[in-house]
Amino acid sequence: MSVEVRNITKKFGGFTALDNVSLKVESGELVALLGPSGSGKTTLLRTIAGLEFPDNTGEAQVLFYGEDVTSIPASERKAGFAFQHYALFRHMTVFENIAFGLRVRPKTTRPAEVKIRERVGELLKLIQLEPLAERFPSQLSGGQRQRVALARALAVEPKVLLLDEPFGALDAKVRKELRRWLRNLHDEIHITTLFVTHDQEEALEVSDRVAILRDGKIEQIGTPDEIYDHPASPFVYDFLGNVNLFSGRVHEGSVTIGDSKFDVPETSGESGADTVAFVRPHDIRITREANGQKSFPARIVRSNAAGPVANLELERFDGGGRFTAQLGKEEFQQLQLKAGENVFVELKNVKVFSDDFSI
Amino acid sequence: MSAAEKTNAPHRRTEPPFVRWLLIGIALAFIALFLVVPLVSVFTEALRQGFGVYFQTLHDPLTLSAIQLTLIAAGISVPLNCIFGVTAAWAIAKFDFRGKNILLTLIDLPFSISPVISGLIYVLVFGAQGWFGSWFSDHNLKIIFAVPGIVLATIFVTFPFVARELIPLMQAQGRTEEEAARVLGASGWQTFWRVTIPNIKWGLLYGVILCNARAMGEFGAVSVVSGHIQGQTNTIPLHVQILYESDNFAGAFAVASLLTFLALVTLVLKTWVEYKNTALRGTAFTPVPIGKKAV
After folding, report:
1. pTM of the shown model
2. What value does the mean pLDDT take over residues A191-218?
3. ipTM of this complex prediction, to 2 decimal places
4. Angle at the Cα of B11 (from B6 to B17), degrees rounded to 5?
5. Residue of A nearest to B287 (CA)
């Protein structure tokens, strides 16, 4: 069951939520819509569900399995939708919440009561909440509510599952558990799924592909590896993790930062032009000895070794500002680094973007 | 902090006992003077000449006709305002449209206008010399100084009660439950009956109780359009006035006791529904201890 949107534009007053967005999700895929708030990801999801309608009727299309559903109302699209704050029916028990989608079917297609009970029973088992069937939503924890919301969406055997910030309102530990659970669930039932998140770690961990949105446009789409290793723009690079910026000059195959020179395999643009080099903190190597032109000196301003990695804040000697480095605890202990010490810094995996320096 | 200081702490935080008792005493005296004494006096005056006279007054055909008319006016205006109120609140809380604020202001209008003016509006529009007066008299329809006028005036005066109660409740609940129902395949009608109404039932009941109390007790607007024709266009409050002005104090208080009794019943119902309502609203976002059933 593939889902496709074509040329969707949606404005709210003067604010453009979606600007001519097209996206195709293949059958059985789990795709994350990742972006900062206001980037249009939730609006895109709601447009697919039929809760919002594109402004450019005629051009814009929403296709479920190649079939145009653009003008079909939400109630007939058969999409499963889990809301950010779950939107469980507060006056119904867990059981009735899950059964709702089956009970509101027209008489001709409504399953018999026995069948409904059977189906709800299966789903309760799937979400591991069988003993809580008679509870009300207010008596459940956040994680339990989210699972009920998912079961309720799955009860109607939707063609596609749409999840709006499914783990957004949960604490860190439950979040991690639940997203692993979601991934396993998806591997089990293989339903085409789109989920919205602003958490890059979540998107990279759970999904088959990630679409990164910015200002109502899709900035890049690809597998987690692709977008992490080959970000299409500084925005994507920055959004996917911490980053250090070094201003320098491009030469063919390398970039000069101060007096040092670092290899950049993917350089483009004019030789000698000003540029900004992007380096992730964990791609910065700290040494005690200089390595010719391939390193530059810096002073350790602060160090923090709590947790599995050590984080350092360093300052360049040439007034080029501060940057952060991350290294393994073992390495950190071997080097016996302390604040105030002078060290040498080497850069790996330097990334240079040709036109757009802004993030 | 030492143990002695700890035990003294609560005392320091409140006023000296005599101030507390003085304030409580003033409050109680005020309640006694302005609420309890009048309440008791209504019933003592009503029963001054014994139960016989009391029930005789209530069995008087003119009294019965006043009770009947009040029940008719309330019986028509409350269900209608229930429908108006729910639809208005539904539209305002669940949809965005132009003129939403104007609609809100219009709903509040009857609260801000003196009831006498509300009555006068109907006289000006439907009365014999009014805008549509001649059309109605040509078709042999009587609005003013007749039952339809009383019903209209009652509807107008009690219009905001249900809507005003429901709008904040429905706005607080948001639209996502309705959206969830829609996505799950429910029709608009099913969404309304299965999701919206159960969520607002206590608020709705609260609005209906207040609406009913006002509908039965309304004096000003009804007085203007009624014409005070005994046995025909007299409601209970108007009847009390007529009895009182004709120096039939026992009768006036007997009939008044009916309204007082209604007020007491309303108060009890209102408190009960308020309790249920807050319990329901409270469970909207905060979890209840396990084992306790949500309302």
Report:
1. 0.77
2. 92
3. 0.82
4. 160
5. A138
